[in-house]
Amino acid sequence: MRFEFLIGLRYLRARRKERFVSLIAIISLAGVMLGTFALSVDLAVMSGFEADLHARLLAFTPHITVQLPPAASYDALRAKLQTIPGVVAVAPYVSGQVLLASSGSRGTAGYVKSGGLLRAVTVGRQSVLAHFSSMLSPGALSALARLHSVSVGQGSQARVVELPAIILGGELGADLDVDVGDVITVICPLGFGATSEVPPLKRFVVAGFFHSGMAQYDSTLLFANLAQVQALVGNSPQFEHGLELRIKDIFQAPALAARIAPLAGAGATVSNWTQTDTGLFAGLKLETFTHFVVLLLIVLVAAFNIVATLVMVVMERRKEIAILRAMGARAMAVGGIFVFEGAMLGVVGTTLGVGAGFVVSFLIGKYHLIHLPADVFMVSAVPARLEPRNFLLVALAAVVLCLAAALYPAWQARSLSPVEVIRYE
């Protein structure tokens, strides 16, 4: 072992008259440990929230969407897209705004609610509902594939009819005052004016609800079988028609979308999930970066304590430094003693802090230690995601700060003149 390391370790030990200096060193180490611990846990929690948000958004948003003209045939294009490496599923879709009318589950007066977004899906081989079955009422998804016998009318006017099923967002169902088994009417608005046609409408039976925890979906979205929606809207230009894709790696969506665009033709519009809710994800990344910078200030404060500690060590060890120089030690080697001390404080504090942060983050994510009110937040417990790069980034930033803090005391030590110190001390 080089003598710089041996002397640096000895200087970190407290002698009776230097215990105050060692106490400051311990406080500095504790500051580094607390800072890296808080930063590690915060990044794990923010990564957990981001992953949860990705999962919730992509449960409703196709990874890639190919919007085609209403009358276009997409069978040939669908066959081509299914052969592209990385594409998991391809399915047709229809989407558009509709009006909803309901008589209510408790016999209340019916009314029309505008703003509902109807999404048509192909049950069993579609790409939108594949990842949110946990958000659905039991049996709701399979109910879309068949007709249901429902009694409509009252008294002598009552009769049994076969109606297709529909799935509503939980908040939308509450606004319409409907429950599972109730009948709603979906109205397709075609336009307004004296020459407007009578808007087509179709009755559906409520098969279930989904609860995503995101108001933008729970209060507007409704899903029905593709064949039933096509029978309702036909080739209406007010509705989007096309293909939706699910891919293996969601972060390859922009590249795959660029590859698909020439295959789709000039009349098609190809988009991917990164183009929706961009502001939300950008804001989340900015918030994560802000947390990183703010919590890194804790480590910076600890680094200033390291500066103070090592400066005092240099002042206490002036005679010993002068003797080392007089014995032939190079100035760089003397400076290396204090760089090593700063590195030791940084590495030990960072190891303890990041290690504790990893353990706590793991416990938070696995056992859901921190609970949240489900009616206020989209999650019932604070999520945590263990990403190695986050912990490595925290460790690297902390060690670099501690090494930078040791540079000034090291420069001060190497600049001491042994002749002047020995002469006057």
Give me a quick take on this structure.
This protein has 425 residues and is an alpha+beta fold.
Describe the secondary-structure layout.
Blueprint: H1 3-12, H2 19-58, E1 64-68, H3 75-82, E2 87-102, E3 111-121, H4 140-143, E4 148-152, E5 159-163, E6 165-169, H5 170-176, E7 183-187, E8 201-210, H6 215-218, E9 221-225, H7 226-233, E10 240-247, H8 253-264, E11 269-272, H9 278-316, H10 318-326, H11 331-367, H12 388-414, H13 418-424
Parallel strand pairs: 3-9, 6-8
Antiparallel strand pairs: 1-10, 1-11, 2-3, 2-7, 2-10, 4-5, 6-9, 7-8
Can you characterise this structure?
The protein has 425 residues and is α+β, with helices and mostly antiparallel strands. α2 packs antiparallel against α9 (278-316) and α9 packs parallel to α12 (388-414). It contains 13 helices and eleven strands. The chain folds into two domains: 3-57 and 281-424, no CATH class; 62-276, no CATH class. The strands form two sheets. The chain has a six-stranded mixed β-barrel with strand order 2-3-9-6-8-7.
Key terms:
2 domains; 425 residues; single chain; two-stranded antiparallel sheet; alpha+beta
CA radius of gyration? 33 Å
What is the string of helix and strand elements? HHEHEEHEEEHEEHEHEHEHHHHH
Cα end-to-end separation: 31 Å
Query: Mean pLDDT, rounded to whole units?
Result: 83
State the helix count: 13
Query: How many domains?
Result: 2
